[in-house]
Design a protein that fits this description.
Protein name: Phage tail protein
Distance between the termini: 21 Å
Shape: globular
Strand content: over 45%
Largest sheet: 7 strands, antiparallel
Pfam families: Phage_P2_GpU
InterPro entries: Myoviridae_GpU, Phage_P2_GpU
CATH topology: Elongation Factor Tu (Ef-tu), domain 3
Strand order of the largest sheet: 2-1-7-8-9-6-3
Organism: Gilliamella apicola
């Protein structure tokens, strides 16, 4: 297992990514002053983003199906835990986007190679969950499966 996002497992047989980019930044409010540099005040962290990218080959993996499962998971519209393959939890993330690029098409138009990019954004879990959300998640999972 390379990583786990919710109930989706990234592995060599599903969706093996070759690159992972972690982006962190922090907010500083600015207040202009006369004849001085602006005064800055720390207001907290921005949302961390993780970008996973790679290529899958139809003959070796079920990458096309795995990408579609991830896209359906986005419709859960709730943050899911992201856990590295070594067991380190990275926090709760939402799926912002999936980009696919089909190359090496066969004579029927089916791609032999799919380049993909997946964008995830870290969120505070308390902003999303209320009493009825668990039932909604279970209902959507039943639709996906």
């Amino acid at each position: 297992m390379m990583m786990c996002y919710g109930f989706f497992v990234f592995s060599l047989k599903t969706l093996p990514y070759q690159e992972m980019t972690l982006n962190k930044s922090w907010n500083w409010a600015s207040n202009n002053r006369v004849n001085k540099r602006s005064a800055l005040q720390f207001t907290g962290p921005n949302n961390e983003t993780i970008t996973l990218s790679g290529s899958v080959f139809s003959e070796l993996t079920h990458g096309r199906v795995s990408i579609e499962v991830l896209e359906r998971m986005a419709y859960l519209s709730v943050p899911l835990p992201l856990i590295q393959g070594d067991g380190v939890p990275l926090g709760f993330f939402v799926l912002n986007g999936v980009e696919r690029k089909y190359t090496e098409l066969d004579r029927h138009g089916a791609p032999r190679k799919i380049n993909f990019t997946i964008k995830l954004t870290k969120v505070d879990i308390s902003d999303f969950f209320d009493e009825g959300i668990i039932k909604d998640i279970i209902d959507i999972i039943d639709i996906i499966i």
